[in-house]
Design brief:
Order of helices and strands: EHEHEEEHEEEEH
Largest sheet: 6 strands, mixed
Helix content: 10-25%
Bound molecules: inosinic acid, magnesium ion
Mean pLDDT: 88
């Protein structure tokens, strides 16, 4: 019998630390947007867990919308091609937007998304990323809100997947090395052709 936790090498951020940090981010965003209308945009699918908790820590009237994006490329080095699978339901012109992401790695997904959203003339756009890896060199996007800076390892849980599994772990864990090597998506774990 395979257990959900079998793929976890170690726990990087436990449930209590996650929830505490999400509450801090929610308080920060609440203070910053006190007098502005706020639209949270989540990037499917990884961000929905973070979004659900974060939004409940924001004590302002605010709205939520989602986009689904797919990135293509060979292995972990992306070609830079990003495609919108599901667009926003609402226009964002003159809105104050905060993009909510699970993790910023190369920054490629977000730099594309930023350019795309800015072309729709919102009043402002900021990024709130639960996790960032230090190695995001190529497309250095400015993240206004960051939950945790983590080492350059492949992480799972709290929305983050490995081949679509493990999103339902309540913490952030490091994926077992041997699974990365053996998995059929082994060389393409950062770039699955389905929504992130
Ligand atoms: P970027 O375009 O390189 O910044 O990649 C961002 C996307 O890659 C995230 O939204 C995730 O879907 C995926 N990703 C990057 N690193 C990890 C990881 O450590 N675990 C799970 N997914 C990851
Ligand atoms: Mg993914």
């Amino acid at each position: 019998m395979t257990e959900l936790t079998d793929g976890v090498e170690e726990i990087l951020v436990d449930e209590a630390a996650l929830q505490a940090r999400v509450a801090e981010l929610g308080a920060e965003i609440s203070a910053d947007y006190r007098d502005r209308d706020l639209l949270l945009i989540g990037v499917l699918k990884g961000a929905i867990f973070f979004m659900a908790d974060l939004m409940r820590q924001i004590d302002l009237p605010c709205e939520v919308d989602f986009m689904a994006i797919s990135s293509y490329g060979a292995g972990v080095d992306s070609s830079g091609v990003v495609r919108i699978l599901k667009d926003l339901d609402m226009p964002i012109e003159n809105r104050n937007v905060v993009i909510v992401e699970d993790i910023v790695d190369s920054g490629l997904t977000l730099s594309y998304l930023l350019r795309n959203l800015e072309a729709r003339h919102p009043a402002s756009v900021e990024i709130c990323a639960l996790l960032t890896k230090p190695d995001r060199r190529e497309n250095d996007v400015e993240c206004r809100y960051v939950g945790f800076e983590i080492p350059n390892r492949f992480v799972i849980g709290y929305g983050l997947d490995f081949a679509e599994r493990y999103r339902n772990l309540p913490y952030i864990g490091v994926l077992r090395e041997d699974l990365i090597a053996d998995g059929e998506n082994g060389q393409d774990i950062h770039r699955s052709p389905v929504a992130e």
